[in-house]
Amino acid sequence: MKGTAKLLHKSGMAKNISLDRLDVALNFSAIYHCAPNWSLDANWARGLTDYDLWYVWGGLGRMVTSDGSIDLYPGLCVWMRPGRHYEATHNPNALLRVTAIHFQLKNKRRLLHPAEFTPPVEVFEPTAPAYFEAAMAHIVDLRSRLGHPDVAALLLKSLLIEIAADSQGKKPDSARDRHYKLKINPLIAVIREQPERRFTVQELAVKAGYSADHFVRLFQAMTGKSPKEFMIGLRMERACALLKGSSHTVTQIADLLGYQDLGFFSRQFKENIGISPDHFRQRGIKSSPQT
Question: What's the rounded Cα separation, in Å, for the pair 173 and 105?
Answer without folding.
Answer: 29
